[in-house]
Amino acid sequence: MNYRRVARWGCLATVVAIAALFAFRTYSTYAEDAKPEEPKVAEVAPTTVAPTAEKPAESTEAIPTEEKPKVDPPVAPTPSVSLVTTDDLAYAIDNVTLMLAAVLVIFMQAGFALVETGLNAAKNAVNIMFKNYMDFCVGALLFFIFGFGLMYPDLAGDQKTVLIPGVLEFGAFGIPAQELGKTVATEGARHPLGNAVNFLFQAAFCATAATIVSGSVAGRIKFSSYLVYTAVISGIVYPISGMWMWGGGWLFDLGFKDFAGSIVVHTVGGMAGLAGAIALGPRIGKFVNGKAMPMPGHNLVYACLGVFILLIGWYGFNPGSQLVFTGGVNVDTVMMVAVNTTLAACTGSIAGMFLSWILFKKPDLTFALNGGLAGLVAISANCHCVSFPSALAIGAIGGVLACLGVLLLDKLKI
User: 4 vs 10, 17, 18, 247, 352, CA distance in Å?
Assistant: First the structure.
């Protein structure tokens, strides 16, 4: 037992000794390599002075000296710099900002889907979501194929077809190339609006007009029939009505003003939805013995979240309709539009809430939500030119009228 212990300690001592020896050798090698080298003194070669020869006295001619050729100093190459003009920078900012506004408007599709789903029966949830998604897919595709040409026929230049001047004209299929014809003129800008970004912005508006119909006919129409309905609105109805105002049509010539689509977008979609609701008749179970029965939504959380999303998207809808965002005047207008939009939404919601409180002796969330949306719709037409107190009044009036309209539809059994 003692021998084993001695052997163990012996082995351990041997290992420690080997490790110490290895460490010492490594340190010695490193120390030698780390010694600074002594500076080497450059050896200077001894200079020898050549003996000078005496000049001959009889030589008076000057010895010609060789002239060294002049060498120009090297010149650094001038880098090629492409300067960005102010107009190019303004064009980039305006078009990119409008694209972001279009994305916000497209995001409104999610808000409409949640509002309609939450305010309807749970059995219709999948159908409503499917229709809202197809609104954008079908609408954007048809608007690209021929709707954009119907709305902006002047972009095709001399190639446009005029059926009824100012009422029904057609430019070209798809998006015309920028250099083929004129571009959409933007007031107060030193540049045109890009055709591609203008298409994207108007395609989002087109989908909004179509999806308003979805809420009006929810629970009353088959999915296949609705696809036909939304195709007609997206491809024909909205482009033609949009041309009347924003495409230089007869309403524009009369001096009609609709800044962000209270009439062109929301009224067109609302009237199409009202026509569909009248044609289809009331929802099953809505009227019993001639009396309107309440049909509460299955999820008011969805509805409230949808209104919040719509409010956010409206900041692309209304301020984006300025189309030009560079320059002090344009920036001030955009900010005024944004503030007016906010004020109208708030007063519309409050007016709807108080109206329900007066009529039903308790506040109703759906009246507040519908009142807020109505305030947003009401301010869209003139948000660029009214004062802040006027925006408060416009939103409140819109909220009250929308809530009274809900009661009117019940009276008319629609």
Answer: 10, 20, 21, 104, 97
For 358, the token pair is 């007066």
Which residues on neighbouring strands pair with residue 162, listed in sequence order? Answer: 169
Q: What is the pLDDT of residue 337?
A: 97
Residue type, 391: A
Output the pLDDT for position 291. 84
360-399 burial by CB neighbour count: b if 16+ within 10 A, else e? eeeebbbbbbbbbbbbbbbbbbbbbebeeebbbebbbbbb
Quote the CA–CA distance of 171 and 158 in Å, as a whole number: 9
Type of residue found at 287: F
Distances (CA, A) of 342 to 143, 209, 336, 371, 383: 30, 21, 10, 13, 10
Ramachandran class of 188: left when φ > 0, alpha when ψ lies in -120 to 50, beta otherwise: left
Q: What is the DSSP letter of 235?
A: I
Distance in angstroms (rounded) separating the CA atoms of residues 254 and 39: 94
The CB density around residue 324, as the number of other CB atoms within 10 Å, is 23
Q: Please report the pLDDT score of residue 30 as a whole number.
A: 45
Residues of the chain with pLDDT under 70: 1-82, 179-192
Tell me how far apart the alpha carbons of residues 277 and 313 are, in angstroms, rounded to a whole number: 26
Contact criterion met (CB below 8 Å) for 108 and 317: yes
| Residue count of the chain | 414
Q: What is the pLDDT of residue 101?
A: 97
- Does residue 157 contact residue 180 with C-beta atoms inside 8 Å? yes
